[in-house]
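Field notebook, page 197. I keep forgetting to write these up properly, so this time I am using the form the group agreed on. The chain and the ligand, iron/sulfur cluster, are recorded exactly as supplied. Prediction of the bound pose follows.
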Amino acid sequence: MELNRREFLKASGAGVGGIFLLGALNPDIALARTVNIPPLKRKVTETTTICCYCAVGCGAVVATYEDGAIKIEGDPDHPINEGTLCSKGQALPQFHTVDGEDNPNRLTKPLYRAAGGTTWQEVEWDWALDTIAQRVKKTRDDNWLSTINVGGTNYPVNRTDAIANFGGGELDNEECYLLVKMARALGLVYIEHCARI
Ligand code: SF4
């Protein structure tokens, strides 16, 4: 059968109108239904962190379940270690558990040993931080050296020789930066690190 242009448009319009009409009468034919999916409850969460054992600063991913870390592995997206961890880094889970049990050696409070004392006692963080700040200030004030005399001439030095700062291998680059800034600002000159001793 041959159709001219007008007959073709009339036939097409009737067809399209029929489809719309069908859709209006029975929308399930043409329209996708909206389904409400409840949000998934994730019990295991992953958090990125930095290994604290040395200043390399490798990235790690910590998987936690409820209130505990169940797995720690190298972060494959971290530019420094690209997923690898050295033997110390692989021991990171022991911060929390050993052989599936809470690590009995994990410290949750600062320990304090008085000058001349032989035993350690648990103290509160507030007490420890206040005491450190008070003793640093007193020691610095009592032992401040503004000048030294060399060959009869006084030279300004503005320092204290009474306090030393001893860094640890577990400090990362950012912590070391801030710690040395603070030590220099306090006028310390004895600034050392365990790796150099
Ligand atoms: S201790 Fe090992 S894993 Fe941790 S930051 Fe240093 S090199 Fe990386």
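OBSERVATIONS:
- The chain is about 30% helix and 30% strand.
- The CA atoms of residues 9 and 94 lie 77 Å apart.
FOLLOW-UP: compare against the apo run.
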